[in-house]
Amino acid sequence: MDVVAGGQGDLMNGDILTNGHGKSTVAARPLEDGFIDIPETASYPTGSLDFLVRLQKQEEKQGTAATVSESPSRVRLNIIIVGAGLGGLAAAIALTRRSHKVTVFEQAPELGEVGAGIQIPSNSTRLLIKWGLEPFLAGRIVKPHNIAFRRWENGKVIGLTKLIPQFERDFEAPYYVVHRAHFHDAMYRLAIELGVDIKINSKVHDFDESSPSITLENGESYSADLVIASDGLKSLARKKVLGGVEQAPRKTGFAAYRATVDVEKMNAYPDTAEILAKPNLNLWVGDMRHVMTYTIAGGKAFNMVLSHPDRSDPSTWHMQGPDKILSGMREHFKGWDPTLSKIIDMIDTTMKWPLLSGSPLKRWVSSSGKLLIMGDAAHAMVPYMSQGAAMAVEDAAALAEAIHLAANESELPRALDIWETVRRQRTGQMQEASLVNGKLWHFADGPLQQARDEGMAPEVEGRDFVSSPNQWSDPTAQRWCYGYDAELEIRKAFSKSV
């Protein structure tokens, strides 16, 4: 561990700050005794100071050249990361940019991501672009114009979130969709370019939180100043962090079929070709089921996620043949919108995944303060807010910022405690919001469904609204979700803890 004098960990006096979902801060001007102080933080939801923040950022851009580098942290650590998925690579990138020495251990014999499409929302792209990822995604991403909610039986648009230009303007970052493999490859190549050491075929057998160190399945051991486990749903480190008590993600009673369709097949028919006319996200919602679709791979493939109730044992699914899985998928959505049904019939092969959700853990950092968990290991969630990977990216950015703000080695426990507190709250709320969408989307036809559709009607008709059952459009949820600045929240928490 190296400690370097100087650094830029302290907040600048006079900064105007906002957390993007209503809590804005303005550095108070010193006042004489007897006068009331101007609040530094607005505890109520407000966007009234956003224009000042935008002005400040514009001035900063004009005064400094854009760069993908960061000032080095004063405390420079030797860090081990377990897991080279999206979360592990995000942590490696964020920490390496602060001049930490990072080694990633991955159990797979070769790197890659299983699955098809993934959404990268604005709260994540803002960080990824800052890190320099955008050139690595060139030609592979799609920027959808809208998110359209559609009625299950006829495809009628019943809800509408406008992403372009609204999200890029309001949240200062675009909304992407991409193939998971392309996203992972871009993260990997950026990590390598930054100098991250990635060791594949290196399965971790045990963690020692006191050293801290890891032991591989082949018996080799490696030590570091800090060990970060981004080892997924079946995390080995989670039980260590929780003091020997496991709290694994639980079944939700739902599963999802994942598949892609060749766009050339869809373009052969006017009704399915119309779905491709604009690069939108289309979401059909109905009784206990929904289908999310969008184009990926630069518009060359049509991604589909078909959620449905399923309480059977996932360990038995591999015994079903491909034809049985396909027929089961089609049976679940029999009688739905004819255009959607035609697309479903174009699916040649599919994978079926159980949908799991964790509940907030009591801690993410071990009692020694030298082993921590992040990503799905800490906060698994159903994909109904499309924020699972985004939360891991936020975890990584927030962790790098927290360590950066530590002035010396003795401040590291405080830094990790602040990171854990901020991230536990944020991800716990996102787990909840994801489950809430599972409620909002799955009403059977009747009074609840009718009231929901009426609540979304203003956004479809272009009328003003102050709330919506569509969390992508609801102004309060939108600012909280997409306007969130993970690094800023850490800086604010640090300033309050002094």
UniProtKB/TrEMBL annotation:
SUPFAM superfamilies: FAD-linked reductases, C-terminal domain, FAD/NAD(P)-binding domain
InterPro entries from the UniProt entry: FAD-bd, FAD-dep_Monooxygenase_BioMet, FAD/NAD-bd_sf
Keyword terms of this UniProt record: FAD, Flavoprotein, Monooxygenase, Oxidoreductase
Keyword Flavoprotein in annotation: yes
Keyword DNA-binding: no
Domain FAD-binding span(s) in chain numbering: 78-432
Homology family: Belongs to the paxM FAD-dependent monooxygenase family.
Protein name: FAD-binding domain-containing protein
Phylogenetic placement of the source organism: Eukaryota, Fungi, Dikarya, Ascomycota, Pezizomycotina
